[in-house]
Every structure is written in C-alpha cells, then in structure tokens.
Amino acid sequence: MKLIIPLLGLAAASLAAAPTLPVPSQLPYQWNNVVIGGGGFSPAIVFSVAERNLAYLRTDVGGAYRWDALTQRWIALQDGQAQNSYMGVESIAPDPVDPDIIYLAAGMYFGQPAAIMRSADRGASWQITPVPFSMGGNEDGRGLGERLAINPDRRTHLFFGSRHDGLWDSEDSGRTWHKVESFPWKGLGRPAANHTHGGVSFVVFGPPSETALGRSRAMYASVSDAAAQHLYRSNDAGRNWTAVTGGPAAPMLPVKAAVDQQGVLYIDYCSDIGPNGIAQGEVWKLDPRSDGWTNITPARGDEAEGGYMGLSLDRLHPGRLAVSTVDRWNHRDTVWLSSDGGAHWTSLRERSSRNLARAPWLLLDKGGFGGWIAGLAFDPFDGATLAYTTGLTVFRTEHADKADMVWRPWVAGIEEAVPLSLVSPPEGPHLISGIGDTHGFVHDRLDRAPERAFADPDLPQTNNVDYAGVAPRIMVRSASGYTPNPEGGALGWSEDGGRSWHEMLAPPITIGSAAPRRIDADGQAPITVSADGNTFLVSGLVTLATADRGRIWWRPKGLPGRTYAVADKVDPLAWYAIDYAGARIFVSRDGAKTFTQALAQGLPANIANSRPAAREFQPMAAATPGTAGELWLILEGRFFHTSDDARTFVASTPVDPVLRRMYFVSFGLGKAAPDVHVPTLYAFGVTKTFGGLWRSTDAGARWLRINDDAHQWGLRYRVITGDPRLFGRIYLATDGRGIFYGDPLPQPMGAGVH
C-alpha cells in the first residue's frame, strides 16, 4: 500500500527514537487490535532454517512480524518504535544457525531515516544502527530481494544491497557499515522526483564450495536498474566480483533469486521493478559448473503476461521450486510449481480452493487467488507447507504435495490495514471503518474479522464516513478507485448502519470556463449528513447538497469554493463550513440552503496550513454528539472550541508547560467523564522531542498520555475517535498496523481522572 502522509510523516519523522524530556503524566491503557486479518501488502515471508515453525514477515508500512508456533499467532515486532520510517521494512534476514538472532533493514522512503536493526531475542528488543544509505520499504520495488544477507561462513559478516548507493557490508553484526568499493555497480545516487531505483535487488549465497581449500562459497548480487550488466558473482566473500554474462535480454531485470544445494541459481525477471507496471517476465536458471543458462519460464505465448516476483526452493526435495506471477491482470495471478527444476510446471490456481473462515471479507477479492504475489516461501522443514502474500493478505496451504490444495488466510495477529475514517455511532455496532484498499467494514465484534466489506460503490478506498447525529443508522461515505471513475458512483448512503449501501453520483457541474465535470469522481469530495439524516452535503471544488438521496442537487448560497462542511449532531438545520484559505467559518440554519459568515471571534488569522492534505485525510473538525451548537477544531496545531454556533471560539491552553509546546495533529471526541459536561478529547500531539496519544476530560486544559513506549506504532496515526457510549474508550487508526481500541486500566483508589 502506497499512501502518502505528509503531515503525519513529518511530525513523526522529526522525533528522536525515544523521549529526551520528561513526558507528562501517564494514564495506563490496555491496547488491542480490532481484528480484520491482514488488509495490506506484505512483500516477503522468510522462514528460519535454524528452527522449525519459525517464520518472519515484512510489510511495507506496518513493520515486521514473527510467527509464534506456541500461540499460533503472528507477533508484531516494532510496535514500540517512534520513528515512523522504520515501519517500512526493506529486507529481513534470520541468522541461519542461531534462531534467536534476526536482522531488519528498515526505512520507508528516500531521504527518511534508515537503519539496520539487530535482535538477539527474536525481535522482542532491538539494537538500532542508523545507516548512511536510503531505503524504500514502501517505494516501488519493495517486492524485490532479499537485499540483506548473512555470510553463512562468518555470521558476523553482513551484506546489504542498497537502492541508490551500491553494495555495503558490515563485519561486526551490523554495527558499522562500509561500501564495497570492489562491487562494479556504484549506484545511481539521488533519484528523480516521484521515482526510485531498484538498485542491488538481492544478495544470495550458494552452498559450500566443492573446492574447500580456503575458498568461500559462491555469492551473487544483482542490479535491477538499466545497466549493461545485471548479475555479479564473488567467490571470496565479497572481496572481488566478476560479471556473469548471458541470461535474458533487455528489458528484463533480475528481481529475486535462490540457490539450490547443487549451486544452481534460479532468478525471477521482470520488465519493471513493480509491484505495478510489469508487462513481461521470465524465469531462468544458471548452472555454475558450465555457466550455462536455461530459460524455464512457465507461461509462454499468449499467456506470457506480467512478470514473476515470488521464488522459493523446496530444501527437502531437490529440483522442486515455486514461482509466483505478478501483474497478470487478464489471465490472473497464480503460483507455478515444478518438480524437475523448471522443465515442467503446474499452475496451482486451477487446482486450489480457499477456506476464508478466518477472514471472510476476503471474498471481495474476486480473482480468487490474489494479486501482487511478491512473497512466496516453502517451509524449509516441510515441503507440503507453502505460503504466499498478496496485496491484501497472506495465504498458506499444508497440502502443497496434494493434487488439490486448500489455502487459508495465515493472518492471526497480522493487522496491516490503513484506515482512513472511523466513526463510533451512539447506537448499533460501536465501530464503523473506512479503509484504504479494502473498502471498509461494520465491526459487529472487535475480536473477530468482519463478514463482508462495503460495496455500492464497489471501490477500494473509503475516504470518509459520517453518520446522522440523531438518526445514526443513516450513514454516508465517499470512495475512490486507483484512477478517477467519471462514469460510476463514488458516493454511498446507508439506512441500516452501514450493512448495505446505495450508490449515488454527484452531477456534473460547470466551474469557470471548464467543461462540466463531477467533483466526486476521484474521491476528492467528502460527504457529510445532517443530524436527522435527510440532507447530504458534498464538499469539493464547490459544495453540493441533496435532500432526496441524490435525485435533485443544489449549490448552497453564500459559500466560497473549497470549503469543508460539518453537520451539527443535534440540530437538523444547522451546518458549519470551514474556509481554510480565507480563515472563515460559515454557518447555515436553514438546512444548507444558505450560509452566512460567522463572527468566529478568537480564530487564528491564517489557517491555510490546516487544510487536509488530500482526500485520505480527515479535516480536524467535529461537532459534539448530543449537544447543539458546539464545534471543535484543530487549527495550526491548537484546539479551538465554540459552544455558541461559531460566534466565539476559545483556544485550549494546556496547564502543563511542556504540553503548551505540543502541536496537535488529529483528535476525536468521546463520552464525557462522570459528572463532566464536555466531551472527552483524545488527540495525537507532538513536540520536537516526543509525541503520543493524549486524553483530556476538561476541554484541553489537562492532558494525560495514554499510549506508552511499548505502544507507539511509529507514531503513524491516521484517525482518532472516542466512543460516545463508553467513557475512556478510544479507537485509533494507524497507518499500517490496523485499528486499535484502548481502554483505561483500573486505577488505584484516589487517582484523578483527566
């Protein structure tokens, strides 16, 4: 999943890995994932060869996981990290002898911090070494690799193939790094804007050399950028390198490789580094005894569509291997299996079935086998177990040796969805979510995967959800595809709390001299609903309203363009509209027929920087459930509150002098504390030295930190909302670790509540 987060990313990227000043008072909270099961792209599964039933998973935005055989769950390994960039894992390398040692290469984008991380306790704790080369854990090419490799003959000696700066090595278990000057490919340096490099895409070692007199085993490294030569070999532990000639012609780029026990090298090739945009692909093998190449590509002729990204060898059965396709949109992606070194292949999709009981919402994947299959791995201790990753989940079968295979989601503990909107209505299920790439869900239970995803419109990204304040079964949502959808609907409304939806289109309108067009076709127009559920407002280049479910639309009078509308949660005729460019608030008291500028005393003179950066970001504005005329805003990092229909706004000033320097990024409202008459505020805020989640029960005067150093999730927080029925309950949408819900732990007698 590639979602850009300029505001959140900047706020988190500016922080040190741990607080350097005393953090204000802590309120202990219990945190649990809302179970979805997968929900994102995991570029690779890597099994340990040192211990049975030990495996690791790397994700592009949600950190790394370890499979725990005892609990039969994946364990997230980076939840305690505050550096957002480290949640994009570029490569992963388990020690081949000691099962307790694991290395990660972590860094999300070029120009952001990158590190090599070492753990001696299977990822429970980390030694972090910042490195001078950039990574791209969530850039194009994240399905390549593995780039990080351990020398099996001297396990303190590591190699890392960088995207932009050639090959690097460390001789002290990753504590210090040096560029391998003898490696011919030096790198292309800084990439052009909105572009990346494939760079050194994999580093692999062969079996022990047959001529053991002081000679190391063969070692290969590839280059996945346009170059005269793409493959290099070293026979002396990386001190010297020679080009390996032959193999496929341009435009093929080597993307993934494995070496069998006889030293035969297998390589997947693609015409692009992917995971999108791959038009062609091939699979080849190289016998080092003769330097002879063989094209073993499974699909030829009319079926030669897309590339090959996954590759795994069965250690227990020589000659048995599997490869996966990628970007095979017409013929659909599959996994190919060969038992004779690639001479003959069988496609597994046609002989497979899926048991989706653990994640039934995956029925939305109508392809039946999944796409973006970059990760593929045999269990090194059991050739009947084979797993692969898709853009949505991880599948595993224990029947890879059978004619008919049953695949199940291998997702217990994996929560990688990127929620873009959360609401907690005052009745019905406590949580409704809008998700990037996986539509969105009604969460009837927080501990069980949803049965189905949103449809009508059947679009992958739900950018915002809203409910009617006094008729909460009426909901609206806006959605988008990966490209604009000028013909189909991008808006939806529901009258049963989000269980079923009706598609709705905004009409084409004329803006200036341009031809008429729809403002909602690309998902850039969030929709909101009046308190009684009768009126919908769509905010975009202009504001549109309908009171009959989209049959007739009007443009409210008195509003400038590009305002954002918020419905009062009690008064069905009251609306607020925020003009970020003009630093103005407009109010309607006639059901959005007309708006007039509010007095809005107390607001900052410039709030342009508070405008949401894109359709995937929620405006920091919320009307109070159960109270008319009350609106809360975050503007320029500060809280503002009105209780008189936007006539006057009061800025919240924290009592704690440390928190007065806090820049608040996002917030949500929840049930008021006992005997308190303002909603509980939940917020994400940062200073120059630390950040976290905060709770206030007195309109922002006193705050308590409610996350802790073990629950930081890279400080990648998308959306926050409280529960209007449960005091203390917060729902947190992270950017890559799914949705969490938090509840306060019991406090000692006499402890205050803030």
UniProtKB/TrEMBL annotation:
Residues 1-18 form the signal peptide. InterPro entries: WD40/YVTN_repeat-like_dom_sf (IPR015943), Xyloglucanase_GH74 (IPR052025). GO terms for biological process: polysaccharide catabolic process; xyloglucan metabolic process. Keywords: Carbohydrate metabolism, Glycosidase, Hydrolase, Polysaccharide degradation, Signal. GO terms for molecular function: hydrolase activity, acting on glycosyl bonds. Belongs to the glycosyl hydrolase 74 family. This is Uncharacterized protein.
